[in-house]
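Technical annex, item 7. During the second reporting period the consortium partners agreed on a shared format for inverse folding records so that results from different sites could be compared directly. Each record opens with the tokenized structure and is followed by the designed sequence. A conforming record, contributed by the partner at site C, is shown below for reference.
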């Protein structure tokens, strides 16, 4: 029998707040974190807006020397994990660290580190490339650094499935917990790719909004005037536990995770398959796993990329599965 899995802690670093409370209050108030790019000179780019994290000091969460050996996406992940542990009141002196794992997804990993070291290579030669280049840029290092800092000796890995990386990390962590491989997992995602090469690449794909003069209204999924998504950075990590473990230590429980589904439409490198059939099947898979009916669902967290193809096909997928209930 599967063990039940619950959420007992949360941490977040975002463009609208560097903790869960500020983040949530910003969401409720409808505040946008989108503005002009400041991390590099984007004046000549077709896209000059992004969602940047501001006011973040890694020294608040880790040793300054160690922070310099981490890419920004890893710093975000460590900070969000620290918040989740504190929020969940996990006693690090009492928990069995061999039964605690980390699974933090990242679609790209250390993009800023890659950009900086390539520039060093071409301008100053191979001998000046940082010895920390590789361990800073690989995408599994977010989970790895969290494991090292806290001494967690359960599984430590990353999932890279583009925009689904964090969701897949949480779903996969849930299954490790349900199977009995671990008792506690830190799971979520982290990204920091607002760099010249990344913005240039996404711009070349014609995937980004070009509302440079109106950044507050740039991201508008499912709107008739949508013109692309907006690059942003940040991290979110959940503290997951088996229900038995959480009850044993008297933890406050936010929610229970009951179902997860993952498939692939095997259609195209960026475009979703027409009519939303495979995406609908994925959601149906999650409902079956959680033993839920479509009428049990009252909220859908959409991909909502604000691009013509995704928004249309995602809408079709939702209506295909939920029918009339989609309107409720």
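Designed sequence (site C submission):
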């Amino acid at each position: 029998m599967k063990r039940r899995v619950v959420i007992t802690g949360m941490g977040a670093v975002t463009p609208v707040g560097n903790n869960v409370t500020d983040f949530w209050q910003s969401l409720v108030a409808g505040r946008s974190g989108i503005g002009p790019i400041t991390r590099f000179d984007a004046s000549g780019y077709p896209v000059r807006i992004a969602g940047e994290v501001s006011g973040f000091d890694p020294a608040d969460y880790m040793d300054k020397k160690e922070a310099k050996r981490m890419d920004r996406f890893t710093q975000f992940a460590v900070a969000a994990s620290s918040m989740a542990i504190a929020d969940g009141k996990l006693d690090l002196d009492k928990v069995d660290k061999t039964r605690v794992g980390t699974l933090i997804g990242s679609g790209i990993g250390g993009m800023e580190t890659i950009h900086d070291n390539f520039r060093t290579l071409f301008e100053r030669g191979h001998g000046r490339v940082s010895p920390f280049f590789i361990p800073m840029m690989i995408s599994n290092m977010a989970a790895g650094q969290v494991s090292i800092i806290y001494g967690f000796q359960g599984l430590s890995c990353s999932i890279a499935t583009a925009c689904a990386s964090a969701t897949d990390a949480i779903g996969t962590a849930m299954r490790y917990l349900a199977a009995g491989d671990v008792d506690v997992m830190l799971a979520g995602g982290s990204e920091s790719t607002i760099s010249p090469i990344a913005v240039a690449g996404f711009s070349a794909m014609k995937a980004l909004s070009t509302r440079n003069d109106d950044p507050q209204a740039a991201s508008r999924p499912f709107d008739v005037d949508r013109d692309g998504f907006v690059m942003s950075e940040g991290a979110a990590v959940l503290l997951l536990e088996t229900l038995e473990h959480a009850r044993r230590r008297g933890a406050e429980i936010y929610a229970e995770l009951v179902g997860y589904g993952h498939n692939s439409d095997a259609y195209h490198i960026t475009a979703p398959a027409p009519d939303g059939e495979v995406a609908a099947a994925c959601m149906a898979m999650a409902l079956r796993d959680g033993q839920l009916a479509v009428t049990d669902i009252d909220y859908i967290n959409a991909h909502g990329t604000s691009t013509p193809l995704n928004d249309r096909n995602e809408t079709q997928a939702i209506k295909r599965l939920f029918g009339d209930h989609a309107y409720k």
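The CA atoms of residues 176 and 182 lie 6 Å apart. The longest strand covers residues 5-13. All partners now use this format for quarterly exchanges.
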